[in-house]
């Protein structure tokens, strides 16, 4: 089958023929229909997020189940599924605590570049070929843990559903689960890419007002407003992002700031623009060794909450169908997220478009 392999950081993806074994007892073979091009994969391609290489990237996908292992009961061949990149184990400390987003086993899968039990189902002529986040969906087919497939209504177009595998759930959950935004709360979103636009549209759904979008690409203004932003700040116009947000929030500061890029200056700005006792939520994935600094006196004296949100703190088996239901009833917009489709052979063009910011989300369609 054809797949896009990252051999080494700072190289283009190599679209080539690879081998895929049949699924083990608790695994599922999925024929991919669509895979979104997310910035987290670009972080890996840049060497900013170390994972075992060579690997098949792609963690935002949807497709149709082709074969299931003998112990699989969650899905059957023919089911339409969204892949979850946190195939939570259900029995570690965090799963039992109701925080599957922090599942130890899912983190181990990420670090080992394999499936649960250190199993590898991928291979090619040049030696070992790693899995990535238990998904590896930049390939015509993939084998994933049964905990990593979420069955969905087959009436939903799979190129829209794919985005719920990462960008939509990450943005939605950050607003709903991490921040608990309420009607009339002011929300500021720094970074209006595929994930940030979903923070914006979920903030609108939650009744936030104003919703201030910030991006260094002026072309994101119109997109941000389509998804619900009431104001747009072009980050290239000034080094100071804090003052305009304080001005737009009656001199108080924003109730919630979401950082959706992963840069030092924007993380610090997110904390700085939040009002006393407000909340800054960091979604952007920074390189593992990057540090940020905050004024220590401000912690007690301003009592701001500074937190992160990983996969929107979601429970994928509950949240993915919930989000798709909101889409089917016109409450969430997935249609305007898919701005460009690419074949797998042109996947490197899709990453260039992501970096140039010419798309809301590019999608590989198989
Ligand atoms: N200031 C303001 N905006 C910026 C800056 C900056 N210094 N740098 C980049 N941006 C904007 C880009 O113009 C783009 O619109 O951030 C946005 C990033 O969007 P995408 O590239 O589409 O990335 P996305 O897939 O949304 O991921 C964003 O969330 O989940 C994490 O790993 C992911 O760190 C990444 C972040
Ligand atoms: Zn992602
Ligand atoms: Zn677990």
Rounded radius of gyration (Å): 20 Å
Structural domains: how many:
2
User: What level of helicity do the residues show?
Assistant: 25-40%
CATH top level assignment of the largest domain: Alpha Beta
CA(first)-CA(last) distance: 12 Å
What fraction of residues sit in β-strands? 15-25%
Global shape = globular
**Tally of contiguous helical segments:** 12
**Number of separate strands:** 19
Arithmetic mean pLDDT = 97
Largest sheet: 7 strands, mixed
Task: List the keywords.
366 residues; alpha/beta; Quinone Oxidoreductase, Chain A, domain 1; 19 strands; binds zinc ion; NAD
Overview of the structural elements:
- Its cofactor is Zn(2+).
- InterPro entries: ADH-like_C (IPR013149), ADH-like_N (IPR013154), ADH_Zn_CS (IPR002328), ER (IPR020843), GroES-like_sf (IPR011032), NAD(P)-bd_dom_sf (IPR036291).
- Residues 8-364 form the Enoyl reductase (ER) domain.
- One of its GO terms (cellular component) is cytosol.
- With 366 residues, this protein is an alpha/beta fold.
- The protein folds into 2 domains: 2-165 and 334-365, Medium-chain alcohol dehydrogenases, catalytic domain (Quinone Oxidoreductase, Chain A, domain 1); 171-309, Rossmann fold, CATH 3.40.50.720.
- The protein is built from 12 helices and 19 strands.
- A hairpin with a 7-residue loop joins strand 1 (2-6) and strand 2.
- The longest helix is centred in the middle third of the chain and has 13 residues, at 167-179.
- It is globular, with a radius of gyration of 20 Å.
- The N and C termini lie close together (12 Å).
- The site of one zinc ion (ZN) has 5 residues, from loops.
């Amino acid at each position: 089958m054809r797949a896009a392999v990252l051999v080494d950081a700072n190289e283009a993806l190599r679209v080539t023929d690879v081998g895929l074994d049949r699924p083990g007892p608790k695994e599922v073979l999925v024929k991919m229909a669509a895979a979104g091009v997310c910035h987290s994969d670009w972080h890996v391609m840049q060497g900013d997020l170390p994972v075992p290489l060579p690997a098949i990237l792609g963690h935002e996908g949807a497709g149709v189940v082709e074969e299931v292992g003998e112990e699989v009961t969650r899905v059957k061949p023919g089911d339409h599924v969204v892949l979850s990149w946190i195939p939570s184990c259900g029995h570690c400390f965090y799963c039992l605590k109701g925080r599957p987003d922090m599942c130890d086993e899912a983190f181990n899968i990420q670090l080992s570049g394999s499936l649960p039990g250190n199993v590898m189902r991928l291979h090619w002529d040049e030696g070992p070929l790693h899995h990535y986040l238990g998904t590896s969906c930049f390939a015509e087919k993939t084998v994933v843990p049964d905990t990593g497939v979420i069955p969905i209504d087959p009436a939903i177009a799979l190129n829209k559903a794919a985005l719920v595998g990462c960008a939509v759930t990450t943005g939605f959950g950050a607003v709903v689960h991490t921040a608990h935004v309420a009607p009339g709360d002011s929300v500021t979103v720094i970074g209006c890419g595929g994930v940030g636009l979903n923070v914006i549209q979920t903030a609108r759904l939650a009744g936030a007002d104003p919703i201030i979008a910030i991006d260094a690409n002026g072309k994101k203004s119109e997109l941000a407003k389509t998804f619900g932003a009431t104001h747009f700040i072009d980050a290239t116009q000034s080094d100071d992002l804090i003052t305009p947000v304080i001005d737009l929030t009656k001199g108080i500061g924003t109730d919630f700031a979401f950082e959706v890029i992963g840069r030092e200056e924007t993380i610090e700005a997110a904390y700085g623009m939040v009002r006393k006792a407000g909340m800054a939520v960091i979604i952007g994935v920074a390189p593992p060794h990057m540090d940020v600094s905050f004024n220590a006196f401000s912690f007690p004296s301003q009592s701001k909450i500074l937190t992160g949100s990983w996969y929107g703190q979601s429970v994928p088996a509950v949240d993915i169908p919930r989000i798709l239901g909101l889409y089917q009833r016109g409450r969430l917009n997935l249609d305007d997220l898919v701005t460009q489709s690419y074949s797998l052979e042109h996947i490197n063009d899709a990453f260039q478009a992501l970096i140039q910011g010419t798309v809301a989300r590019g999608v590989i369609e198989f």
